Amino acid sequence: SEDACFTRGEMRIVHFHFRTEKNMEWNYFVKCFMSLLAILNPIGALPIYLSIGSGSEWENRRRISIVTTLTVFLTLMAFMLFGESILSFFGIGIPAFRIGGGILIIMIAVSMLQGKMSPAKHTPEETEAMLEKQSIAVVPLAVPILAGPGAISTVILLTHQANSWLLWIALSSAIVANSLLVYLVFFLAGRLNLFLGISGIKIVTRIMGMILMAIAVQFILDGLAQVYPILTTTQ
Predict the structure, then answer these.
(1) 78-134 residue pLDDT tens
(2) Nearest by Cα to 202 from 107, 121, 122, 114
(3) Exposure of 176 by Cβ count < 10 A (0-12 exposed, 13-18 middle, 19+ buried)?
């Protein structure tokens, strides 16, 4: 009947839209996962973790890994949920934050391309103080070495782009996946250090720096396009 055909047609349309949304969700998950992986760079934090854990018992190192992972997860989720409200409270627009955050991330990316840890993430003075502390899983290992200003900026900007509940789920899943990856990297720290060595860790850091540089430039271009819409129409 016509009603049955119409119903089947509607079902095909609904199925098409659902499949399209699922594809968008997957693509957005990959984008979020790679962006956060590049900025968190747990491989690059291995030398610091190993220097902290040297001489410690295995149970203590495992505790540090768990607390660090939970802190990274909670920090990123907190800024996913409340980051835009914080910007609004201080009267900061998303275009300005995109440009400022992009510049900050470029600074971090440049340091990574040089095989260094950016001062925007961690300073030498903080490293010295860290080695004297007993409890370093939260500060500075989780914040700011892993979930520092760059990671927080990235999460806020990715949250702004997530304009549906499916994309929110994708971003949340990317945060969960990266947090678990942090734990896995620290859990296998000794083996990874033996396998990669200092040179391997620096190579991975430089690759992440290249990815991060491209992400940062895109953030800046998006911010400029919002401030100067004419840029989107120029060829």
Answers:
(1) 999 999 999 999 999 999 999 999 999 999 999 999 877 666 666 666 555 555 454
(2) 114
(3) middle
What pTM, to 2 d.p., does this model score? Answer: 0.85
- Is 48 in contact with 141 (CB distance < 8 Å)? yes
Alpha-carbon Rg for the chain, nearest whole angstrom, is 21
| DSSP letters for 42-88 | TTTTHHHHHHHHTT--HHHHHHHHHHHHHHHHHHHHHHHHHHHHHHH
Could you tell me which residues come within 8 angstroms of residue 153 by beta carbon, excluding any fewer than 6 positions away?
A: 97, 100, 101, 104, 105
Query: Is residue 192 within 8 Å of residue 131, measured between CB atoms?
Result: no
- Map tokens 């892993």 to a residue: 146
Torsion of CA 201, 207, 212, 218, to 10 degrees: 180
87 to 94, 97, 156, 228: CA distances (angstroms): 8, 8, 9, 21
Domain range annotation of the chain: 2-232
CA distances from 39 to 51, 142, 215, 222 (A): 21, 13, 10, 19
What whole-number distance in Å separates Cα of residue 54 and Cα of residue 194?
14
Q: Which of 44, 45, 49 is nearest to 65 (CA)?
A: 49
Taking the C-alpha atoms of residue 229 and residue 107, their distance in angstroms, rounded to an integer, is 26
